[in-house]
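Module 6 notes. Inverse folding takes a fixed backbone as the condition and produces residue identities as the prediction. Think of it as a translation problem where the source language is geometry and the target language is the twenty amino acids. Below is one complete input and output pair. Work through it position by position during the lab.
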């Protein structure tokens, strides 16, 4: 007795739609997570130009003085009197002794010196002054 196969053989198929969904989900994850790895500058500062600027690693502790004379450590506004203690605390947390100093080119010389003098009083601090290069594109940090 012979059995007749009533179901015709269906050729094997590969459905790639679920694979595309997984690939797009992974791609979206990497795009979104890479946004958190970039360093965003949120305080607008017109940096002075210097021909002798050298590119260095960016410091984890950043002190910014805006054109109005407001002092920021990172993105937090601080007074001149509390600058030294805040920087010391952040240096311990970051385990780095490099402090990057960014000042708008229009601030007064007196204020620049006052902030810079406070920074120099911190023990074991290495200061990097942020400038823009006239001959190169991008920012550079001079020490």
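Target side of the pair, the amino acids:
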């Amino acid at each position: 007795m012979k059995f007749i196969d009533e179901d015709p053989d269906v050729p094997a198929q590969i459905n790639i739609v679920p694979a595309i969904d997984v690939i797009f989900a992974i791609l979206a994850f990497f795009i979104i997570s890479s946004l958190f790895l970039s360093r965003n500058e949120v305080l607008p500062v017109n940096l002075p130009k210097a021909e002798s600027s050298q590119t260095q690693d960016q410091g984890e502790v950043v002190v910014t003085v805006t054109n109005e004379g407001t002092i920021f450590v990172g993105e937090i506004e601080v007074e001149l009197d509390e600058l030294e203690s805040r920087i010391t605390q952040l240096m311990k947390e970051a385990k780095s002794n490099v402090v990057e100093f960014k000042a708008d080119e229009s601030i007064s010389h007196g204020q620049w010196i006052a902030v810079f003098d406070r920074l120099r009083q911190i023990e074991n601090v290495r200061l990097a002054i942020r400038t823009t290069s006239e001959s190169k594109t991008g920012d550079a940090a001079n020490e």
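Reference fact for the lab report: DSSP finds three helices and seven strands in the chain.
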